[in-house]
């Protein structure tokens, strides 16, 4: 049976990809951010997951405003980085796990989540930067597990509610746990925390709200479902809606989790950068 080991969250800022490329790990601006990752890598080294379900939000690469699925699941053999930011690094593709994807899609639809299934899906920084933070050198890291990308719409309103995101995660948990073969799974939630990249509030960051979300998501994610989408945009900024990915990840972990690690640093580029490792308790 497949088993969910835990959840990993991280912001997915494109400038991080550039900082990795240029080896800026000890640079004074970047160090407090990169220092958030070695404890998570040590945990991954110890537990060696076989599969990473990477819940991210596409930023107009795989889907655009003319066709915007609310929830999309990758069902491809591999996923290519075609990110638009900082030039396109020539990376080999990230290996998929289509047989697991189809099982999950089947189960999600059975549980009345209507899914867009993607047999081709180019991936952007929302997917790639977290993979490189958790598995340095990815996809050229032999310890990197196979991946399944899951994207939700945070770009074009109406976006899902926080409750719907948490419920999606709960259904995803049942989908993963019903996979008959032995697989150790980690679930990534990438994006956030507060940021707004455009308009009058460009540069907006809300430390207090970010810290409230990081606290509540551990033991009381239901409390966060009381936040309306308007309130989320108001408190977290227009792109702070990416917190939906964290809620989807959290739903997949079950009721009880242990926070093994967490880091928060502002600003990284325009964003409140949060990182967490939540371990599942059976
Ligand atoms: C930034 C953050 C994001 O989440 C993103 O998708 C693009 C840019 C930023 O802070 O620069
Ligand atoms: Fe983003």
Bound molecules: 3,4-dihydroxybenzoic acid, fe (iii) ion
Largest sheet: 8 strands, mixed
- Major sheet strand order: 6-3-7-2-8-1-10-9
Helix content: 25-40%
Structural class: alpha/beta
Provide a count of the helices: 10
The CATH homologous superfamily corresponds to LigB-like
**What name does the CATH topology carry?**
Protocatechuate 4,5-dioxygenase, Chain B
Order of helices and strands: EHHHEEEEHEHEHEHHHHEE
Total E-strand runs: 10
Overall CATH class:
Alpha Beta
The backbone outline, from C-alpha atoms, is globular
User: In percent terms, what proportion of residues is strand?
Assistant: 15-25%
CATH architecture label: 3-Layer(aba) Sandwich
Distance between the termini: 14 Å
Protein name: Protocatechuate 3,4-dioxygenase
InterPro entries: Xdiol_dOase_suB
Keywords: Dioxygenase, Oxidoreductase
Domain Extradiol ring-cleavage dioxygenase class III enzyme subunit B: 8-273
């Amino acid at each position: 049976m497949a088993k969910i080991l835990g959840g990993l969250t991280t912001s997915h800022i494109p400038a991080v990809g550039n900082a990795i490329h240029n080896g800026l790990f000890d640079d004074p601006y970047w160090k407090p951010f990169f220092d958030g990752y070695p404890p998570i890598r040590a945990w991954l080294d110890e537990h060696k997951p076989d599969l990473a379900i990477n819940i991210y939000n596409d930023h107009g690469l795989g889907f655009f405003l003319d066709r915007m699925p609310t929830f999309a699941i990758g069902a491809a053999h591999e996923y290519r980085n075609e990110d638009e930011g900082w030039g396109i690094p020539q990376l080999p593709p990230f290996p998929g796990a289509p047989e697991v994807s189809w099982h999950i899609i089947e189960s999600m639809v059975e549980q009345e989540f209507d899914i867009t299934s993607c047999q081709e899906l180019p991936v952007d920084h929302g997917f790639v930067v977290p993979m490189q933070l958790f598995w340095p050198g990815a996809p050229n890291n032999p310890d990197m597990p196979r991946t399944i990308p899951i994207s939700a719409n945070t770009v074009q309103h109406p976006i899902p509610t926080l409750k719907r995101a948490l419920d999606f995660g709960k259904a995803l948990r049942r989908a993963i746990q019903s996979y008959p073969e032995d697989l150790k799974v980690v679930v990534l939630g990438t994006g956030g925390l507060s940021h707004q990249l455009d308009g009058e509030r460009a540069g907006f960051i809300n430390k207090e709200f970010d810290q409230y979300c990081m606290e509540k998501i551990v033991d009381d994610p239901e409390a966060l479902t009381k936040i309306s989408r308007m309130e989320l945009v108001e408190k977290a900024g227009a792109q702070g809606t990416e917190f939906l990915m964290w809620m989807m990840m959290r739903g997949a972990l079950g009721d009880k989790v242990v926070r093994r690690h967490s880091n928060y640093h502002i600003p990284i580029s325009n964003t409140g950068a949060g990182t967490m490792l939540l371990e599942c308790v059976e």
